[in-house]
Amino acid sequence: MTNVVDQITGHRRMRRNRKADWTRRLVQENRLTVDDLIWPVFVIPGTNVVEPIPSMPGVNRMSVDRLVEAAKEAADLGVPALATFPNIEMRLRDETGSNSLAADNLINEATRALKKHVPQIGVITDVALDPFTSHGHDGILRGAEIVNDETVEQVAKAAVVQADAGSDIISPSEMMDGRIGAIRQALDAAGHQNVGIMSYATKFASAFYGPYREAIGTGGLLKGDKKTYYIDPANGTEAIRDAALDVEEGADMLMVKPGLPYLDICFRMKEAFGLPVFAYQVSGEYAQIKAAAMNGWIDGDRVMMETLLAFKRAGCDGILTYFAVEVARQLSKKG
Ligand SMILES: NCc1[nH]cc(CCC(=O)O)c1CC(=O)O
């Protein structure tokens, strides 16, 4: 006599492998390690300044000296790299984002200090113009248009200035056409053959960036939206075509942004190109988890770990996450 479940399952039982902690550990397909983490950080002018960001509890803007200290801790925990974002003084912001080309601007100052004091941690810098423009757009605004080619020329120059300061990986997030090829050419012409490019290959026109804009002070400045250059959240195939151009133009690594709502894109990018793929768990994703956890509605630590593991399952090689140091601390405790 076989019971009814055996008749239905034909004696195949999925729960056998789930029966104990040790079986679950044996069959676990994906793991999150400290090597998967890139830590995005916000830099402000001054010394000994640490400013909390209200919509991102636990995340601070830091002056360069304090950033160096924080980077030391991250490096000691084994975090491979940082991605730096500057909150530029308002008086330095203008229509064309000209401060992006200054060798001694805040972002380059941070890179120099990091490379000098914490050389073991990778420094990834963005060349988008939004921290430097008076209108908060990622490119140069002429009339009502974010002009493509002029912006590309400028971000390619900014990439060289950032590489001169010691940046290890240039990460362009402004989604102009042709930027990856132009940046590669400019870097090579300046002798920076070893500086890599992590393309924000698929960056969507998302509502999840709100807290970031507060963090770098562009929230109140931005006129209109970024829909003429970021990808429509409705479009997956277009995103893959956009990434394909970046691959042809010489990107070394690809990024998907935001993260969790776009896991299908992560999966498709990994399948399509086989290049290293990173997801950016953006400010709004972080804020959601923190806010719900602070209300006692979810277990914040477990949700944090689950989201990061989901990126690995979707095929990502790593994740840019504001949780990086928190996660690294927890992973190191587990040994
Ligand atoms: N170049 C813009 C830029 N660089 C980083 C983020 C978002 C990061 C985040 O939300 O965590 C954005 C998006 C935007 O403001 O439109």
Automatic annotation (TrEMBL):
Record keywords: Heme biosynthesis, Lyase, Porphyrin biosynthesis
Residues at the active site: 203 (schiff-base intermediate with substrate), 257 (schiff-base intermediate with substrate)
CDD domains: ALAD_PBGS_aspartate_rich
UniProt GO BP: protoporphyrinogen IX biosynthetic process
SUPFAM superfamilies attached to this UniProt entry: Aldolase
Enzyme superclass (EC): lyase
Keyword presence, 4Fe-4S: no
EC number: 4.2.1.24
Record field: catalytic activity: 2 5-aminolevulinate = porphobilinogen + 2 H2O + H(+)
GO molecular function (one): zinc ion binding
One Pfam family matching this protein: ALAD
Keyword check for Lyase: yes
Transmembrane segments: none
Pathway the protein acts in: Porphyrin-containing compound metabolism; protoporphyrin-IX biosynthesis; coproporphyrinogen-III from 5-aminolevulinate: step 1/4
InterPro entries, alphabetized: ALAD, ALAD_AS, Aldolase_TIM
Entry GO terms, CC: cytosol
The name this protein goes by in its record: Delta-aminolevulinic acid dehydratase
Annotated source species: Rhizobium subbaraonis
